[in-house]
Amino acid sequence: xxxxxxxxxxxxxxxxxxxxxxxxxxxxxxxxxxxxxxxxxxxxxxxxxxxxxxxxxxxxxxxxxxxxxxxxxxxxxxxxxxxxxxxxxxxxxxxxxxxxxxxxxxxxxxxxxxxxxxxxxxxxxxxxxxxxxxxxxxxxxxxxxxxxxxxxxxx
Length: 155
What we know:
Helices cover 18% and strands 27% of the residues.
């Protein structure tokens, strides 16, 4: 629901050696509606303390490299968090009122009401997800912080 306050696109897709920044990734947003189609479970996370570590994850995220560098340098301490998430599609799209508390530049929000996620289905098979998670772990080449469930998903 929150958006980075920037006139430039912040998302990008890497195909081969070329970067693409499609506006279609963001979709049409209504100012008064919070649209939810997915939930995610944080399977592992790690604080990255160097831009070299950030660069090792290239191709495994949708953020433009210059945006990551900007976010890395934001705040008092340099660094950024990398999250390995298991994404699941909700059985139906939810449209909730976009409350003022959800707005602004926020990474996470707490919804006013819980939503049912038991029927959500992972977007990747278990095998495909394991491959992606192994790539994430290999790129960072260090033990990861254990999982933290944000929403239960079926596996």
